[in-house]
Predict the 3D structure of the following.
Amino acid sequence: MNGAATNQSAIDRNLLACGILVMWVASLAGCAAQYRTSDSPKSPPSQALVIGSPPAAGDTWVYEYVDFWRPAERRRVQHTVVGTDNGAVDEVLAMESRAGERRMRFDGRPQFIEYGMGDIALHEFMPYLGSFAALRTGQSWTHIPGMPLMNSIVSWDLNGVAQGLEDVTVQAGTFSAMRVELRAWRSALGKRDVAPLTARMSLWYSPEVKRVVLIEFSSWDKRGMAWDRERTELVSYSLR
């Protein structure tokens, strides 16, 4: 009996020791996992910063406008700075092979701009964004004015955000540019409203060029049918 009791005690001691060892190993594993988690925090998203130099009188950019419903009818428009004043830029616009010119002032306020040149309508949004002040990833704009009103009751709601730096290739070359996305929508004016209800505008701004490099504008009606499909890209530029 004494021998059996002694053997049982030894077994109990061994089991207790094994249990303690298992608990100790599990504790070490938990500590190691906790250490790895605290020692390797997630990196915050990169905040790209674009700071260009302000445009100067004599700076010139030539853009080519393409309407994808009429791809053969391409138009080239030249923008030339004639003066600057406290963040506002005065331009003279001229269409290639067309007589006459148009003067425009961009004052730096967030605004959707639609203007005619010859037989086309051009669209812009703060073309010198990033030239007078820093432009960061995540920077946003809400309730942007300037979209054409449908009537005195219904208007567009237009918002935008800077998505980040991308390499974009246009006829003038390849540039590192900040991509800005604008989204617009409005309420329908009844069942017979067949005009666009949503619109999207993508723009790429390059500090090297000191102006927007590429603009893509599209709109859709309530059935999802495309109305506008336009692309305006930089062909050449000359900086003083």
Summary: Confidence is low (pLDDT under 50) at residues 1-8, 14-45. The chain is about 15% helix and 45% strand. The two ends are 107 Å apart (CA to CA). The helical segments are 2-39.
